[in-house]
Write a structure and sequence with these properties.
With 414 residues, this protein is of the alpha+beta class. The chain has a six-stranded antiparallel beta barrel with strand order 1-2-3-6-5-4. It has a six-stranded antiparallel β-barrel with strand order 7-8-9-12-11-10. It contains six helices and 20 strands. It is 19% helix and 30% strand. The longest helix has 35 residues, at 55-89.
């Protein structure tokens, strides 16, 4: 708190006049001492000064000084003009020395230098429609991995290995919409110095790990973005309506055109394939939430696609949601005529176990059958009307699309 001065101004405030003390007037006469009058004395003559110079000398000196001052002013103005002109035309000076990158920047530089030559631009055509994406080399024989949705329905696919190089034709060896993965092959003789990228074990990835994405967002040549692994075990919906499990979430900026490109760890190894981004308010740009299909899924699917196999997955035929009465998954819909319907599962059942594995949420159902094959029999334990029942389900083959077959649908299920 500030103490107030009696005059209404704070202490130390500047004043333009002096305030009178109490009982004094604003103006005081200057007092003079009382003295006895003295007789007047004659004033002495002023002392004689030095002898003066002749007038003509003074005039000459003044003229000389005037010339000197004028000349100095002209010279100074000329120098100032020259200095101003030279400084306005000169380039701005560069800061001395160079910036030493920190450890993170050095790591990203090394990752980009090592991995970017293996990242390719992909253009696919379906009649008059053209789309583009990213891929990367996984084998020196010309095998390239990308997203299935990048080449879906294409009748011609081309790959470009360098930013300004020519495009070469690529063959689609196989495509799997359920994992959003596709495998291409180019003639290795048309691609110089193919260097395969190494797949990491995505089970060892942890939240907070460095993540670097390389691709062709919006067609921009070999663009690198970086961030961290933001989440693990996410589920995203594939183009055919089924879910892709154990997806890696990252905040490394990913935009249209990055699809099919690698997400790399701090050692430059592939931990996932960039597949989707979350958007807000109907937008289509990055908001810092991207998803990559994990490298362990790539490791499992790619060899089968490269061999030309059609991947068949086990299918239960239900849609489920989190249980409202404890752990488990509540059956929201059962596909008519599907494996679960034939075994007697009903809407409202709470699934507790599948194939001997405890079900805590709907994701656990998909995990329980993901390694099973169509035709296998599994026990499904459900709670119905307060009692437990065990039903035997013969797994079917997942259809090409989940769209429209589940009524009512709360999302595609296993």
């Amino acid at each position: 708190m500030t103490d107030e001065h009696p005059s209404g101004r704070p202490p130390g405030a500047g004043r333009l006049w002096t305030e009178p003390r109490e009982g004094e007037e604003h103006t005081q006469w200057l007092a003079t001492p009382s003295v006895r009058p003295q007789p007047a004395q004659p004033e002495p003559d002023p002392p004689a000064g030095p002898p003066g110079r002749p007038v003509w000398q003074l005039v000459a000196i003044g003229v000389m000084l005037a010339f000197v001052l004028v000349g100095a002013g002209v010279l100074g103005a000329s120098l100032l003009h020259d200095e101003s002109s030279s400084s306005s035309n000169a380039a701005l000076p560069a800061a001395p020395g160079s910036v030493t990158p920190d450890a993170r920047s050095r790591a990203i530089r090394q990752i980009y230098a090592s991995a970017s030559p293996s990242v390719v631009f992909i253009k696919s055509q379906d009649g008059a429609s053209t789309s583009s994406g990213t891929g990367f080399v996984v084998d020196s024989d010309g095998t390239i991995v990308t997203n299935a949705h990048v080449v879906a329905g294409a009748n011609q696919v081309q790959v470009r290995f360098t930013d300004h190089g020519a495009s070469v034709n690529a063959q689609v060896l196989g495509s799997d919409l359920s994992s959003d993965l596709a495998v291409l092959r180019v003639d290795s003789s048309q691609a110089q110095r193919l260097k395969p990228l190494v797949l990491a074990d995505s089970d060892n990835v942890r939240v907070g790990d460095l993540a670097v994405a390389i691709g062709y967002p919006l067609g921009l040549d070999r663009t690198a973005t970086s961030g961290i692994v933001s989440g693990l075990g996410r589920d995203i919906q594939a183009a055919n309506g089924f879910s892709i499990d154990n997806v890696i979430q990252t905040d490394a900026p990913i935009n249209p055109g990055n699809s099919g490109g690698p997400l790399l760890d701090g050692a430059g190894r592939v931990i996932g394939i960039n597949s989707q981004i979350a958007t807000a308010d109907g937008g289509n740009g990055s908001i810092g939430i991207g998803f990559a299909v994990p490298s362990n899924t790539v490791r499992e699917v790619v060899p089968r696609l490269r061999a030309g196999a059609v991947i068949k997955r086990a299918y239960l035929g239900i849609s489920s949601s989190p249980s409202t009465v404890g752990q488990g998954a509540e059956v929201a819909a059962v596909i008519s005529g599907g494996p679960a319907a034939q075994a007697g599962l009903k809407v409202g059942d709470t699934v507790r176990q599948v194939a001997g594995r405890t079900v805590r949420d709907p994701d656990d159902i998909a995990t329980a059958i993901e390694d099973r094959k169509p035709g296998e029999k599994v026990d499904v334990e459900v709670q119905r009307a307060g009692s437990n029942k065990t039903l035997v389900v013969t797994l079917g083959t997942r259809p090409a699309s989940a769209g429209g077959s589940v009524q009512p649908s709360l999302g595609a299920g296993p």
